Amino acid sequence: MIKVDSLKHTFTIGKKGKENRVEVLKGINFNIESKEIVAIVGKSGSGKSTLLQILAGFLKADSGSIIINNTEIAHFSEKESAAFRMNHFGFVFQNFQLLPGQTVFENIELPLKLKGIRQPVRKKKVQEILKKVGLMEVEDHYPNELSGGQQQRVAIARAMITNPPIILADEPTGSLDSQTEQDILLLIQQLNKNEGITFVIITHDEEVASIANRKLRMSDGFLVGGTKYAF
Ligand SMILES: Nc1ncnc2c1ncn2[C@@H]1O[C@H](COP(=O)(O)OP(=O)(O)OP(=O)(O)O)[C@@H](O)[C@H]1O
After folding, report:
1. Which of 67, 80, 94, 148 could form a disulfide linkage to 174, CB 3.0–4.6 angstroms apart?
2. How far is 42 from 216, CA to CA, in rounded Å?
3. pLDDT, tens digit (0-9, with 9 covering 90-100), for 75-92
4. Whose CA is nearest to atom 13 of ligand 1?
5. Using one digit for the tens of pLDDT, what is the confidence trace for 123-132?
């Protein structure tokens, strides 16, 4: 489903004339199969978020290939990346990134509006998802009226409302206490199993990595590992 080959990226940082080149990705290779949960682990600054940004098309790699569902996306224009992203990826972040002035229902509905889906269809889909993530009682609440775990459920519902085959998650439980973390990890496992969503999760946390089928480690610009866990 995802096949990455020889992916390289270097940032140029610092003042003009005194720039430093930081080679973050030195030739990354990996495959992710449909319906896997893969954890990407590694030290702070090792390039995990950079890799995710490049996979999602927010950032262009210097060189290399990214094939997703048989489509080469590494050389897409911004417009092509945006269209591809809308149909293939959902996103979940550590800090939820919900719109504070919109209710739970409206936050989850937004990607459908952006896709031009009609209101009756939107309503039906949002209600189905609210049920799946256990948020029916709070659909008219605003994000600041919810617990952290509830907010992350809203973010997950929003990520999956357009049925993307892949959810990219950057430290999805980083802001949650350990009980709430367990609840969210259970939800991710259920969605993986019942809806067939592939998850790529960046994490520092061994608990989070433990739900993955495979753990890939960023180290010195390379991605290593990939042993399949048996369940
Ligand atoms: N936009 C940018 N411009 C310049 N340098 C950047 C940029 N984004 C990241 N870097 C550098 O690239 C390196 C990798 O950063 P990245 O955020 O990908 O690491 P990470 O593994 O996700 O770290 P963390 O676990 O702390 O989030 C760091 O040295 C960082 O300073």
Report:
1. 94
2. 8
3. 999 999 999 999 999 999
4. 45
5. 999 999 999 9
The mean of the pLDDT values for the chain is 93
pLDDT of residue 226: 59
Which domains are assigned to the chain? Answer: 2-226 (3.40.50.300)
Reported ipTM: the value is 0.96
What predicted TM-score, i.e. pTM, was given to this entire model?
0.92
Cα three-residue angle 213-216-219, rounded to 5 degrees: 165
Instruction: State the CB neighbour count (10 A cutoff) for residue 219.
Output: 14
Contacts of 219 (CB under 8 A, 6+ apart): 42, 43, 46
Q: How far is the CA of 46 from the centre of ligand 1 (A)?
A: 7
The Cα–Cα gap between 107 and 38 comes to 27
pLDDT at residue 231 greater than cutoff 60: no
Q: What is the pLDDT of residues 136-166, one digit of tens each?
A: 999 999 999 999 999 999 999 999 999 999 9
- For residue 199, give the 3-state DSSP assignment: strand
The four Cα atoms 89, 92, 93, 98 give a dihedral, to 10 degrees, of 110
Distance of CA 112 from the midpoint of ligand 1 (Å): 31
**Ligand 1 centre from 178 Cα, in Å?**
26
Q: 24 in ligand 1 pocket by Cβ < 6 Å?
A: yes
From the number of C-beta atoms within 10 Å of its C-beta (0-12, 13-18, 19+), residue 78 rates as: exposed
Residue 186: pLDDT above 80? yes
